[in-house]
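Q: I'm building a small set of examples for a reading group on sequence design. Run inverse folding on the following structure and report the sequence directly after it, with nothing in between.
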């Protein structure tokens, strides 16, 4: 089964080279593509100078637009699976094979690289928000997801088609809930380890984290009522 690793990147000049070099070293059997989402720094130049596989978007479309670009590419090139992989160095490429093996053994439509399958969540405001999202997904979909905000996810061919042919799906918890409830997607979680961001700064400040969690909860309920 062929798997494409999608690496959305926006202004990641400090980490993109180390991320892709580690990906190539530790997961050499996986295809990858960097989606340069209209970066204003040297991200594009570095990717091209190193000969990386990259798609340059002329303007910044955000994570959703960048991910959809990658999904359309995967759909048109016939990939069986896609794995979303962060450009900032938080995700560890040695776990890619774990996600694929988990999918093969369980037949899951979506496999989440989860930090909390065998480990407990730390006590923090962000993890409290994660617990709230998990609770709403469980109440609306009847499925328990321990790490709903993890950005390391595998999607199979059936899910790739959904992202590639629609414009209203984002790589976010509300889409997970929608795919489970409305498209009968099966979801599994595979234990992974993640690092802190290797360079740059996360856009999720404390206030933005709270806003993100609140919006995610509302979006899940909205998806249950209005999306088809």
């Amino acid at each position: 089964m062929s798997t494409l690793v999608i690496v959305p990147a926006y202004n990641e000049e400090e980490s993109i080279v180390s991320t892709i070099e580690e990906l190539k070293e530790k997961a050499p059997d996986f295809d990858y593509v960097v989606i340069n989402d209209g970066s204003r720094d040297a991200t594009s130049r570095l990717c091209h100078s190193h000969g990386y596989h990259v798609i340059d978007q002329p303007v910044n479309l955000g994570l959703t637009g960048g991910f959809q670009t990658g999904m359309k590419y995967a759909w048109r090139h016939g990939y069986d699976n896609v794995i979303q992989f962060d450009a900032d160095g938080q995700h560890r490429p040695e776990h890619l094979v774990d996600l694929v093996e988990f999918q093969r053994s369980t037949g899951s439509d979506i496999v989440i690289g989860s930090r909390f399958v065998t480990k407990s969540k730390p006590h923090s405001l962000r993890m409290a928000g994660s617990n709230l999202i998990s609770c709403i997904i469980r109440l609306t979909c009847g499925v328990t997801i321990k790490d709903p905000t993890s950005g390391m996810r595998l999607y199979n061919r059936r899910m790739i088609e959904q992202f590639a042919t629609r414009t209203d799906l984002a790589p976010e918890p509300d889409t997970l809930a929608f795919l489970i409830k409305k498209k009968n997607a099966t979801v599994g979680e595979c234990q992974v380890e993640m690092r802190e961001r290797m360079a740059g700064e996360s856009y999720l400040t404390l206030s933005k984290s709270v806003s993100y969690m609140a919006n995610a909860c509302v979006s899940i309920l909205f998806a249950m009522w209005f999306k088809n």
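Helices lie at 16-26, 43-49, 62-76, 96-106, 125-141, 157-165, 173-183, 206-226.
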